[in-house]
Amino acid sequence: MNRSKAIINTKNIRHNLRIIREKSGTKIIGIVKANGYGTGINEISKVLRDEGVEMLGVPYVHEAQGLREKGDKGEILLTGTLSEDEVEEVINLDLQVCTVNINVLRSLNEAAKCKNKKALLHIFVDTGMNREGVKPHNLEAFIVVLKTFEHLKIVGCLTHLISSDDKDKTQTKNQIAEFSNALDKIEKAFGKLEYIHTHNSAAIFNEIESPSNFSRPGIAIYGFLPTRELQSKSDLKPSLKLVSEVSLVKHVSKGETVGYSNKYIAKNDITIALIPFGYGHGFPWALSNCGSFSIKNKSCKIVGSVCMDFTMVDISGLDVSVGDEVIIMGDGITGDSIYDISEKANTIPYEIITHLLPRLDRVYI
Ligand SMILES: Cc1ncc(COP(=O)(O)O)c(C=O)c1O
To answer: Angle 74-75-77 (CA atoms, 0-180°, nearest 5)?
Structure first.
């Protein structure tokens, strides 16, 4: 039996989706990449489809392929780039794409022609991120080439926001203005579009205006936002809890060390518990000697370095036995929150959950 689990609360996922719909007033492209932000792409996608999510979004063909293999028949958008050797699969799997690589689009057009189909394209406008998308000053030339591809149908337009979690909305407003200009040009060239989308999770909760009819929330679906402040002002409910149990209790005498490389030296006699949860489950090694787990509602400091399979915590003075529940990540009241962990690890909340490894059992409630 696996003692370490990610408990995913699907009721909270459903609740979050309703909040996102209310807040955005748009249809939803649910972003389920990176194994559904660590929660399990197939299970979460089923919940989202059941809630009527109009489209799912992943960057890579192999992620979409996995969804199709598990029986997902709904609309899927590939938000990432594409290679020429993937275009046939795109047609076979009936995926919508955002790539702006002309050679790939030419191949996609050919592949669609061979199957007597039309490939559906959302034009990704790069309004400043300098990642995916066509830059506005290249848009007109891009449109001219696109017009020659008879088996591509332009159905959507999107951009990605750089700093939508920022209190200062100037950069986001500039991006949206740039996007609106591009949208006008695209609709003049190809007619009214069915899918117009700019907003990630933070933009939805930071109340930013946009000409969109779809949003692309990722992290909000799972109950989190990029910052603690934004999350605390929202009605989102965290859907993910990490738990384990005590597997051994031992006494450490003053002057003894704990774990690899003598990173902890006991200043007094202490009692420690061995918890079968380590960086080999996705817990950050950076929390060595500075993180904490919760046992019986008490915060127990990590002593020594986090190991691949185990972490040791100080339980001195507590009545703790083998088998007691340990909260690795909780809601911040019982157990450190995703924000407590990511801040101590000097990273972002996204990294904490997308690093959860397959070795961890995922339990859906
Ligand atoms: C293109 C695109 N859209 C939407 C999202 C969802 O972002 P978030 O998880 O911040 O809502 C991402 C995630 O990075 C993305 O790359």
So the answer is: 140
CA of 83 relative to ligand 1 center, distance in Å: 21
Ligand 1 binding pocket mutation candidate from 28, 31, 48, 130 (most atoms within 8 A of CB): 31
Looking from the CA of residue 219, the nearest atom of ligand 1 is 9
Q: CB–CB of 32/57 below 8 Å? A: yes
Q: What spacing in Å lies between the alpha carbon of 201 and ligand 1's midpoint?
A: 7
pLDDT level of residue 9 (50, 70, 90 thresholds) = very high
Contact (Cβ atoms closer than 8 angstroms) between residue 123 and residue 157: yes
CA of 31 to the centre of ligand 1 (A): 7
Q: Is the predicted pLDDT of residue 2 greater than 90, yes or no? A: no
Q: Is the pLDDT of residue 100 over 90?
A: yes
Q: Whose CA is nearest to atom 14 of ligand 1?
A: 218
pTM exceeding 0.90: yes
Eight-state DSSP code of residue 237: -
User: What is the best residue among 216, 342, 351, 354 to mutate for testing ligand 1's pocket, by most ligand atoms within 8 Å of CB?
Assistant: 216
pLDDT > 70 fraction of the chain, expressed in percent and rounded:
100
**What's the pLDDT tens digit per position in 152-181?**
999 999 999 999 999 999 999 999 999 999
Two tokens, residue 2: 């696996």
